[in-house]
Task: inverse folding
């Protein structure tokens, strides 16, 4: 079963689940129950044969519809509610019988994520996008309610349509509606609507741009021959598919009268006919085959002796139209070429020599050719070559060359403009329930085609450490992973943590609602059985990447001095000792005691503090004989902050005269007195003073006081104070004032 699955609020959710065993088989494999993951109990989620103890969040809403079908443990939740969000649950096969070798089913769990918006459907169009042709339209909806799949509809007539269901990744099901569309215009919008169980409706649209096409001109005449000085009717017909492409027909005998008429026999079948009234002269007669009319003679007697007044063979003739320019081949792409998928290129040309047809050659892409010859009309053939290939990132264009038996050659080229598709970004490791100031690893990953299409993954939180790695998963498929070390505060509770993959052609995001709880002191950190107590705050804040000084004081006797003070973790890992070899590697060189231990000062400095240096850390003292002296309330938990506090500026006059003297202060609080913040101003001060103030809670306030002269020039001016914390993190505050003169 999947480790995470999404459920649409108000709809149903089917969690796919199967099991297997090789030894110690269950007695009743047809009985499957589901439980909520808990540390010390077994809250019941679903038990079809005894629902009395099901917890309120799931009571009456769960079934195991396929538990009697093989080794199946599917769970159906209907309807999904907000109370199911972030619930971690697991199945148990034959829960009424447990023994020494019963499998620990809780080691495999699934976490439900409840969403209130359905995912938009995907529209895919296959085929030759030409007006008058047919294409295949598919609309696919991804969901997790396979028992009650959504209803799909299209805004186009359904012809030879079908509805299919297939399994997707992560427990999803893909429902696909497929139909055939006859293209009747060059621009139209295809819209797909999906209605999920519970009433959620979502739509998607795609613009279908089709190519208008036309056929070769045809010329016909009403008389068998042209007689000098006698008018005859000659017609030229143009056939095409789009009404907006009405052609202008011209004749090379422009001085003779001609009329034009346009009609249609359907929305994609148009015809424009030009009728020329042609009066021939003796000068029009020529010896070229062009325009010659030929007719067959089938008689044993020579044609010169044929004087019958009956039917004549020349009543049926064929006219020769001779051209010295080879016809260019027509190249088209069937569908949209996407990297990693198969696509087809088609090239065709019309000719009148089936005994020695032209040769079509495709270059620029690999693959085998499929060649077909089709009789279009009397005497006119069309040769077509199609090549199917696996699209690669480096594919740029395709050329098609036609070679005729007479030596003529023509080439056409088409740009491929291959698409580099990408999948939706997924938060594969989510923050879950977090504690304030405790770092958690959050991971987002996205897969895509094309190495050049590498995305930038950004998060909606600043000053938080993240790493980015990209690897090639398979040929032309890449995965970029961003690992965020997230540190939340109580103010973040209820907000969203969002990762966004930014591609050149678009972006994709995934979000998670944050649940931040307040730090609660562990009983281990609150000893009460010692004789004396230390003065150590039980929780203390620190800025990651900077330093922190934990205030600590203990009772002392001058006549009984301590040899050393030691700070350690609950697992007895030592983080500070005056003998550096005792300190664990992670803290070596980063900790030191401040002040004099035998004056009661046991304050500890941790430099370059890391996101996971929370502790708790506890203090004890030692004498030469190695006696340890522990104190009540001697442990501290460090609540991490990703960003420094924002500096606070005193007010300045709203309006000042140029050249006047102004005094202003800027203060910031911190917990690193050994390396206090330094200040930077957007003006050049005449005088500058920095002060440091300690508060009883161990928080320090550093203040910069300056005096400066207001620069000349009318208008609103910004005054900015920037506090730069130890090891580089910084934050600024800005006020505005209007300067006159």
Result:
């Amino acid at each position: 079963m999947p480790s995470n699955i999404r459920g649409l609020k108000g709809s149903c959710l089917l969690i796919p689940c199967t099991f297997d065993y090789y030894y110690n088989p269950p007695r009743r494999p047809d009985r499957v129950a589901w439980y909520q993951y808990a540390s010390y109990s077994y809250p019941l989620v679903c038990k079809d044969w005894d629902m009395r103890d099901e917890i309120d969040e799931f009571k009456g809403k769960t079934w195991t519809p396929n538990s009697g079908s093989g080794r199946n443990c599917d769970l159906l939740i209907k309807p999904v509610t907000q109370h199911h969000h972030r619930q971690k649950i697991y199945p148990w096969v034959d829960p009424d019988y447990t023994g020494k070798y019963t499998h620990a089913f809780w080691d495999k769990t699934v976490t439900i994520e409840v969403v209130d918006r359905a995912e938009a459907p995907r529209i895919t169009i296959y085929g030759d996008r030409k007006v008058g042709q047919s294409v295949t339209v598919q609309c696919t909806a991804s969901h997790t309610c396979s028992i009650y799949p959504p209803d799909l509809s299209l805004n186009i007539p359904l012809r030879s349509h079908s509805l299919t269901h297939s399994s997707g990744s992560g427990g999803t099901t893909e429902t696909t509606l497929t139909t055939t569309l006859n293209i009747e215009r060059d621009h139209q919008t295809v819209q797909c609507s999906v209605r999920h169980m519970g009433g959620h409706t979502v739509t998607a649209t795609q613009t279908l741009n089709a190519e208008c096409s036309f056929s070769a001109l045809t010329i016909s005449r009403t008389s068998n021959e042209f007689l000098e000085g006698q008018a005859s009717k000659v017609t030229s017909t143009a056939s095409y598919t789009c009404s907006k492409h009405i052609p202008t027909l011209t004749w090379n005998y422009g001085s003779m009268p001609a009329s034009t008429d346009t009609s249609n026999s359907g929305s994609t079948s148009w015809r424009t006919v030009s009728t020329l009234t042609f009066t021939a002269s003796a000068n029009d007669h020529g010896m070229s085959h062009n325009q010659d009319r030929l007719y067959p003679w089938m008689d044993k007697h020579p044609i010169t002796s044929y004087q019958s007044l009956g039917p004549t063979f020349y009543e049926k003739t064929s006219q020769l139209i001779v051209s010295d320019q080879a016809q260019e081949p027509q190249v088209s792409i069937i569908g949209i070429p996407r990297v990693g998928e198969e696509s087809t290129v088609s090239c065709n040309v019309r000719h009148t020599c089936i005994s020695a047809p032209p040769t079509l050659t495709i270059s620029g892409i690999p693959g085998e050719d499929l060649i077909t010859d089709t009789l279009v009309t009397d005497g006119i053939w069309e040769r077509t070559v199609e090549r199917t290939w696996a699209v690669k990132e480096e594919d740029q264009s395709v050329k098609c060359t036609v070679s005729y038996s007479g030596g003529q050659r023509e080439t056409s080229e088409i740009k491929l403009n291959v698409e580099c598709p990408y999948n939706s970004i997924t938060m594969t490791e989510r923050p879950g329930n977090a504690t304030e100031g405790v770092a958690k690893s959050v991971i987002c990953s996205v897969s895509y085609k094309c190495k050049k299409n590498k995305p930038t993954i950004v998060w909606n939180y600043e000053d938080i450490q993240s790493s980015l790695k990209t690897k090639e998963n398979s040929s032309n498929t890449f995965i970029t992973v961003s690992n965020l070390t997230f540190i939340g505060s109580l103010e973040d509770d209820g907000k969203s943590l969002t990762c966004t993959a930014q591609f050149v052609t678009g972006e994709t995001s995934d979000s998670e609602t944050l649940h931040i709880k307040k730090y609660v002191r562990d009983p281990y950190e609150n000893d009460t059985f010692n004789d004396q107590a230390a003065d150590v705050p039980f929780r203390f804040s620190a800025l990651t990447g900077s330093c922190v000084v934990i205030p600590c004081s203990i009772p002392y006797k001058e006549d009984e001095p301590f040899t050393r003070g030691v700070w350690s973790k609950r697992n007895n890992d030592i983080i500070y000792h005056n003998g550096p070899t005792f300190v664990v590697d992670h803290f070596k060189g980063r900790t030191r005691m401040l002040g004099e231990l035998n004056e009661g000062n046991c304050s500890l400095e941790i430099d370059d503090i890391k996101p996971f240096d929370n502790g708790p850390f506890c203090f004890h003292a030692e004498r030469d004989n190695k006696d340890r002296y522990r104190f009540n309330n001697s442990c501290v938990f460090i609540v991490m902050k990703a960003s420094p506090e924002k500096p606070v500026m005193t007010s300045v006059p709203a309006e000042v005269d140029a050249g006047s003297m102004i005094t202003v202060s800027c203060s910031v609080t911190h917990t690193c007195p050994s390396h206090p913040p330094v200040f930077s101003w957007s003006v050049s001060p005449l005088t500058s003073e920095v002060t440091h103030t300690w508060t009883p809670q161990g928080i320090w306030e550093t203040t910069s006081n300056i005096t400066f002269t207001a620069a000349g020039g009318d208008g609103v001016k910004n005054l900015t104070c920037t506090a730069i914390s130890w090891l580089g993190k910084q934050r600024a505050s800005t006020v505005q004032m209007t300067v006159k003169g």
Notes: The chain has a mean pLDDT of 86. Residues 326 and 408 are 6 Å apart (CA to CA). The chain is about 0% helix and 45% strand. The radius of gyration is 42 Å.
